[in-house]
Design brief:
Largest sheet: 9 strands, mixed
Number of helices: 11
CATH topology of the domain at 32-156 and 278-359: Rossmann fold
Strand content: 15-25%
Radius of gyration: 22 Å
Structural class: alpha/beta
Number of strands: 21
Helix content: 25-40%
Length: about 450
Amino acid sequence: MSKYEDIYLRLPIFLQNILCSLEGLRIQYTRFNKEFYRYLKEAEERSSWSRDQLFEYRDKKLREFIMYAFNNVLYYRKKFREWGIDPRSIRSVEDLKNIPILTKDEVKKNFTEFISEMIPKSKLVWVHTSGTTGGGFRFYTTKDSIWQQWAIWWRYRRWHGIPLNAWCGYFGGRSVVPITQKLPPFWRYNVPGKQILFSGYHMNKENLVYYLEELKEKRPLWLHGYPSLISLLASFMIENNLKLDYQVKWITIGAESLLDHQEYMIKKVFEVEPKQHYGLTEPVANISECVEGNLHVDEDFAVVEFLPIGDGRYKIIGTTLTNYAMPFIRYDTGDIAVLDSNLKTCNCTYGGRIVKSIDGRKEDYVVLKDGTKIGRMDHVFKDLVNIIEAQIYQRKPGEIYVRVVRGSKYNFEDEKSLLKELRKRVGEDTEIIIEYVDSLFRSSLGKLRFVISDIKEGKID
């Protein structure tokens, strides 16, 4: 937690709302400018392109990007020579197969060598992500890359009729409400961004009725966030025979896989089909659901490869076409796609390849002593770049084991920061045991489950 976050959480609620809106104003000003709208217009024009047109466009961008990386990025200049690959020989995605897979750890080890020599330091934008392994990861991007990414995300939303000025009830991992707060409101407002930011860390049986009351009062037509959180609200409404007094028009989900029982509960309660989207802060892959209910690779945004691992499952490997500040070529996302050879065409106008589902983003809940369920805990690790990977294990409510694989620079200050971030989300009543290990448990497919629960209430599938 930064010192600014620490100060924010100590402020009175009305000041927290003002700061949320000021941050929202900053985001509106920097993210949604004329360049964003230009990229959005161009992206929407490509919505009717055939697969051949998309592939031709993608491969042209790829050729330009590969040559740029070779000429301006030290890491690739050295590696292409070491690999014995002439960058001019890479004409399409099929030619990438001779380039080794790039891991997050490889980027961390050679960080400065990945930074483009052509981008002035003043133009670099610092971003961070936690990913699905719990290892914090920071890297540079550019405003231009961010505008292009948001244009693709808003193209998907506009496919489904969501206007840019729609009010949104957001259910995610942002710590906008102090974990110590025991009374409502368990949400804050971003007025310029038209968001009600619902806390994902106060959703127990005693508090969920207040969430429902806020929805009834403000009546946002669009709900967005983690399916584990939106389905928690839906489950509560089913259990208590409660309903909204208005009709939600759109529900979009991200950051986690949408499980069958979650989809069933959301549809039953809100009478809306939740729409899925897969994207990463590292702009190396993007997959969006179309109006026909199929997931399409956004071929015009990044180069996405599917490497088979058996049983119809494929590793998602991505190459950015937009981030010229730190080019990632054949980057291992850590996620898995399920493909179906029978799903080749779609009745929508977009020609991107079809994906049956995304795997690898499923997590159990952490259950607090009072029964509150906390989902998607990876935000804890976003700034902890000296942690290689981590995993949370729970065998009884109110107690968690945090298994940590330390990097070479990990120190006592990192442990203090880790505990502070955890306390922000699970409070002082939860016992936290940190275990330092050499490796973490993985599934037979090699996937890391970030939260593993051995208690019934915490199971997500």
